[in-house]
């Protein structure tokens, strides 16, 4: 199976659970040939998950200073992912670092698309804020659409 | 004129600060104030918010302790699980041995491997080689980074094999495990472990060739000591100044103190003040418990049986990573699944103590439970809270002889000195005493 969706984040940290919510939405659709993983955002696990993949979609909450709920779509194949983008910072080796490391080590799969949604609250707690919750199905639809479109090519 | 400038320079005030310490776990800052050549103030500020684990453990079942405390840290969850299950088993009057004990050690080896591999290569090595981060280092050291990632990955895989998943394992319970892995799954790990031992040898050779600042301190090392083994989950607490106590005596010797500038408590020896836990302490106090191959590797890496230069902790970590791979191989090769993956631990009123050697030092726990097995009281002393004051003392001493360095260089080297301890700031921040003065 070469299509992978990674939902990164921590659903005990409010909006940081966005990636996990999208992963669950997509997993519930049981798409053929698509594997869905929930990861904490720790860089080592992301690097390991990229191994041998052709097409990867990664979803995470971001905090770039934009309005809550704003959607960012980044093509990791053609642009650098800003390290300051993601909330998770354990030992400073997280999503952005993992993707950059993969690029340096020639391990970046041919297609890697990152969907980031601007989060509002990252404190301890369960549940997404309204502006973020509204984006869950929309981002799941986007990813499903991109997977279908690439299958037609 | 020249003399005048020099004189002015020596009395000038300088502040070295890193508002956000990179490549450590959690959120902390460092502050150093100098007046001429004199170090006026050094603070390791931990502003990671407290999480009140000891508070919310109260009223929960003793069986929940390993799952709840694992959440204290994503890098060393096994340390919290092992310290808590041992404390609960002590209360129940149960000793776990045989294949269940071996599986625990195997799980813990996985944690040491992933944590040490991450710290050696991704967090500490860039300091020595003059790179801003592992990402900046990778283009010039591709093979080494590839090796590091695989070394770490195998550690994570061991944790997933025994613990059910690699972060916050879910298979650990008081008395053992919910499910024991199958014989073939465990034995199938053999080749990866042999590769890991060889790669760890290369890691030792690599880090032993680095340049180390000339800096040694007369630390009081504190670590666990077991009659036969290099310490992981069991043993007494010993120190390089003659301490040799049962785990239950920890609070007679050590106390946690609150300081204004940190959300993490400082743990100190009641009479002698700051002390040192972690790889350097473990190694110095248990050199004779290392395997012959690990000792030989330490010698090849240029290490004496006692190392007092904290920058050389990177070599000691690499030797310990080798040892963990070797120990994992010993366990894997002889593994036969237990008939039942856990022993029964019926609830019993009492107080129990557990301690284990987290990758960054001893992690001490005390719990009291009632007749129904509900936790009445919990105390957790993580390694970083024990090292905080020593980190500050290192910074003070280190800066003393180096005040002529530029601010940038001094800050760089001070951050490196903090990273010698692989501090886990999230772990250390678990308690805040709040006093309301209403006059």
UniProtKB/TrEMBL annotation, chain A:
The keyword RNA-binding does not apply. The keyword Hydrolase applies. Belongs to the peptidase A31 family. One of its GO terms (biological process) is protein processing. It holds the Pfam family HycI. PANTHER family: HYDROGENASE 1 MATURATION PROTEASE, HYDROGENASE 2 MATURATION PROTEASE. GO terms for molecular function: aspartic-type endopeptidase activity; enzyme activator activity. This is Hydrogenase maturation protease. It comes from the Bacteria. Keywords: Aspartyl protease, Hydrolase, Protease.
TrEMBL record, chain B:
Mg(2+) binds at residues 54, 380, 430. Keywords: Iron, Magnesium, Metal-binding, Nickel, Oxidoreductase. This is Ni/Fe hydrogenase subunit alpha. The keyword Transmembrane does not apply. One of its GO terms (molecular function) is ferredoxin hydrogenase activity. Pfam families: NiFeSe_Hases. Signal peptide: none annotated. It comes from Candidatus Polarisedimenticola svalbardensis. Its cofactor is Fe cation; Ni(2+). Ni(2+) binds at residues 73, 76, 424. Fe cation binds at residues 76, 427. InterPro entries: Ni-dep_hyd_lsu (IPR001501), Ni-dep_hyd_lsu_Ni_BS (IPR018194), NiFe-Hase_large (IPR029014).
């Amino acid at each position: 199976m070469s299509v992978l969706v990674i939902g990164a984040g921590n659903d005990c940290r409010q909006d940081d659970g966005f990636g996990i919510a999208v992963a669950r939405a997509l997993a519930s659709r049981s798409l053929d040939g698509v594997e869905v993983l929930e990861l904490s955002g720790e860089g080592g696990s992301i690097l390991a998950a990229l191994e041998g993949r052709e097409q990867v979609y990664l979803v995470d909450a971001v905090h770039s200073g934009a309005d809550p709920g704003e959607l960012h779509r980044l093509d990791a194949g053609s642009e650098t992912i800003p390290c300051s983008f993601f909330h998770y910072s354990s030992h400073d080796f997280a999503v952005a670092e993992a993707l950059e490391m993969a690029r340096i080590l020639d391990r970046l799969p041919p297609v890697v698309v990152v969907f980031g949604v601007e989060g509002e609250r990252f404190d301890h707690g369960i549940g997404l804020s309204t502006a973020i919750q509204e984006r869950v199905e929309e981002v799941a639809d986007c990813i499903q659409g991109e997977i279908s479109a690439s299958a037609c090519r | 004129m020249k003399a005048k400038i020099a004189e002015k320079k020596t009395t000038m005030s300088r502040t070295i600060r890193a508002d956000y310490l990179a490549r450590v776990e959690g959120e902390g800052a460092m502050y150093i104030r100098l007046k001429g050549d004199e170090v006026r103030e050094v603070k390791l500020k931990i502003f990671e918010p407290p999480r009140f684990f000891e508070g919310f453990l109260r009223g929960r079942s003793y069986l929940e302790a390993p799952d709840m405390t694992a959440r204290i840290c994503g890098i060393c969850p096994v340390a919290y699980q092992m310290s808590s299950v041992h404390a609960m088993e002590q209360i129940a009057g149960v000793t776990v041995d045989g294949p269940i004990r071996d599986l625990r050690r195997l799980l813990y080896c996985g944690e040491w491997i992933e944590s040490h591999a991450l710290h050696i290569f991704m967090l500490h090595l860039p300091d020595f080689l003059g790179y801003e981060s592992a990402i900046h280092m990778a283009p010039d050291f591709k093979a080494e980074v590839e090796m590091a990632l695989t070394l770490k990955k195998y550690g994570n895989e061991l944790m997933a094999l025994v613990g059910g998943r690699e972060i916050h394992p879910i298979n650990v319970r008081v008395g053992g495990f919910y499910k024991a892995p199958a014989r073939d799954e465990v034995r199938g790990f053999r080749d990866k472990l042999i590769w890991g031992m060889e790669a760890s040898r290369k890691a030792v050779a690599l880090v032993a060739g680095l340049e180390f600042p000339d800096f040694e301190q007369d630390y009081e090392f504190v670590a666990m000591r077991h009659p036969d083994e290099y310490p992981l989950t069991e043993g007494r607490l010993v120190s390089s100044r003659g301490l040799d106590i049962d785990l239950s005596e920890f609070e007679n010797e050590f106390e946690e103190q609150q300081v204004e500038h940190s959300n993490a408590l400082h743990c100190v020896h009641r009479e002698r003040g700051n002390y040192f836990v972690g790889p350097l302490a473990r190694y110095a106090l248990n050199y004779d418990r290392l395997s012959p191959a690990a000792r030989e590797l330490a010698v090849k890496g240029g290490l004496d049986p006692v190392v007092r230069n904290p920058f050389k902790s990177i070599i000691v970590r690499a030797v310990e990573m080798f040892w963990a791979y070797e120990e994992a191989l010993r366990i894997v090769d002889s593994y036969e699944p237990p008939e039942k993956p856990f022993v029964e631990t019926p609830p019993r009123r009492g107080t129990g103590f557990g301690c284990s050697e987290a990758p960054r030092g001893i992690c001490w726990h005390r719990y009291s439970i009632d007749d129904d097995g509900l936790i009445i009281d919990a105390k957790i002393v993580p390694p970083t809270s024990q090292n905080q004051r020593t980190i500050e003392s290192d910074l003070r001493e280190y800066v003393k002889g180096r005040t002529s360095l530029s601010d940038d260089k001094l800050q760089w080297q001070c951050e490196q000195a903090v990273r010698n301890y692989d501090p886990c700031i999230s772990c250390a921040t678990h308690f805040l005493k709040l006093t309301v003065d209403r006059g």
